């Protein structure tokens, strides 16, 4: 919930805190209604530990963990698109269906990005 003043940048610690609170509400809402987001978080936690253990290099760790963070970010955005489309109406609409399919495709592509990053970094090291 942004204020109606038209300003987007926090100008005080209180406004920065309020922006943080809204972000946490968004994460909570996503957690509450999206089982796929919960599953991705459950996978994220042990895979972060694996990334930290399996790679000594900070850049490699950043790529492995960052690729997984991207999945979570895109899942939140996809959930937002779905919520707006569902709010608009339950009747079938070609554009609404296309928007949902595109959001799903974005999640799929981010999942493929994780597989490619992990495969290119860990594959040669552990499969050679």
From TrEMBL:
Source organism, top-level taxon: Bacteria
Cofactor remark from the record: Mn(2+), Zn(2+), Cd(2+) and Co(2+) support activity to lesser extents.
Subcellular localization: Cell inner membrane
EC number in record: 2.7.1.107
Catalytic activity: a 1,2-diacyl-sn-glycerol + ATP = a 1,2-diacyl-sn-glycero-3-phosphate + ADP + H(+)
TM regions (residue ranges): 37-56, 62-85, 106-127
GO molecular function: ATP binding; ATP-dependent diacylglycerol kinase activity; metal ion binding
One of the protein's GO biological processes: phosphatidic acid biosynthetic process
Keyword Ligase: no
Residues binding a divalent metal cation: 34, 82
Similarity annotation: Belongs to the bacterial diacylglycerol kinase family.
Protein name per Swiss-Prot or TrEMBL: Diacylglycerol kinase
Source organism: Arenimonas oryziterrae DSM 21050 = YC6267
Source taxonomy: Bacteria, Pseudomonadati, Pseudomonadota, Gammaproteobacteria, Lysobacterales
């Amino acid at each position: 919930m942004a204020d109606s003043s038209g300003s987007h940048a926090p100008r005080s610690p209180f406004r920065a805190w309020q922006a943080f609170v809204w972000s946490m509400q968004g994460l909570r809402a996503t957690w509450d209604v999206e089982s796929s987001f919960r599953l991705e978080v459950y996978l994220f936690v042990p895979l972060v530990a694996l990334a930290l253990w399996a790679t000594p290099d900070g850049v490699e760790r950043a790529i492995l963990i960052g690729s997984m963070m991207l999945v979570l970010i895109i899942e939140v955005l996809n959930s937002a698109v779905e919520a707006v489309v569902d709010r608009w109406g339950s009747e079938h609409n070609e554009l609404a269906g296309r928007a949902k399919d595109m959001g799903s495709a974005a999640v799929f592509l981010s999942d493929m990005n994780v597989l490619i990053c992990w495969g290119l970094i860990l594959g040669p090291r552990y499969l050679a």
